[in-house]
Amino acid sequence: MSKTEPHVRFSLIFALASTMMLGPFSVDTYLPAFPDIADSLGVSTQQVSLSVSVYIFSLALGQLIGGALSDRYGRKVILMSGLAIFAAASLWLALTDALSVFLAGRAIQAVGAGWVLVSIPALVRDRVSGQDAAKLFSMIGLIMVIAPGIAPSIGSGLLAVGPWNVIFVFLALYAVFVVPVLLGTVFRDPVSVSVSSADVSILKRYASVLGNTKALPFIFWQIGSFSVMMLFITHASFIYQEHFGQSEQAFALLFGANIVTMFCVNLANRALLSRLASLRVLQMASALQGLGASLLVAAAAFDWPIYAFLAAMMLTIGVMGAITPNIQACFMEYFPTSGGTAAALLGAAQFGVAGTISALSALLPHTLLAVVLAMAACAAVSFSFMLRSLRREKDAAASLEEA
Predict the structure, then answer these.
(1) Would you kindly state where each structural domain of the chain is located, as residue ranges?
(2) Predicted structure pTM score
């Protein structure tokens, strides 16, 4: 990624971001079709919503398998295989007529997506490190953050021209579209990468990553912050449409406000990375998320009006535009020869734990305060690791002074 080749940098960022968009597209595009899918399969909307949890858990499993395999067999083989699995499963989903088959199709689709998504951080780590990696993650995130905002609109548009099955045909075609984009950019010029021995088993690869005690805190940091966002996505409809009584059109705008905020924060993150270390920006963003979560609790407890609540939610969710890319950069820095395994562990942990928390949140009282308290608890986990990193910096500085 030479500074003298801006067109190469842009094409690489576009290709990686387009590939990463497969994830949010596969989660958010079919959300508007839940009632139609339920009618078609002869089940309730709540039963169809199980497909989200199935997808999240299978995505975590797919990343765990695909990450280690990509370190052994190479990024290209695993990434292209993942796209093929995803496309085939999407077509299968378009032809399903039973809930059990639909859920199985979503599981297979998620495994393919997991192989795809876990390859992207590894590809970044293969090419750059340090602040350059943080900036590249930030630029990919800047483009990718658009996907959750436009995905429901794409789904609604497809429903206007055809049945719900068309959405899964679209997802299959999108996966096929990504293939020539990747071949013409990311894999056009092979990159020399130091990979671990092919004789090393998957379990040993993960044991090696888990043995890096300096990197592990970033996994829990990401779990805490990502779970905040997952809880919001899970309960967004209840929050805005049921509790605040907003229409479907208003809900789309209120939900989109968080996407716009993430986009702006991502832009600010890239600018800050030219002056501050990635860890410092991450600490600042986590502190702001803690503040936002506290404001959400106050808003729910004291019945603030919707626009005051929205401002607090935009702060809480919007800072993910800085938290995620910087955690990825800080974590991946420790694994120059096992980027796929490391990315898999980070991705599987965040999706697996956040998916579990999201599923368990269905047991909460059906109130706004219960939801935001759960979000605040997850934000507190993230905040605690931010404080831990500050203490480590302080202790390191004290040791240098004594020396």
Answers:
(1) 1-187+200-208, 213-334+364-398
(2) 0.76
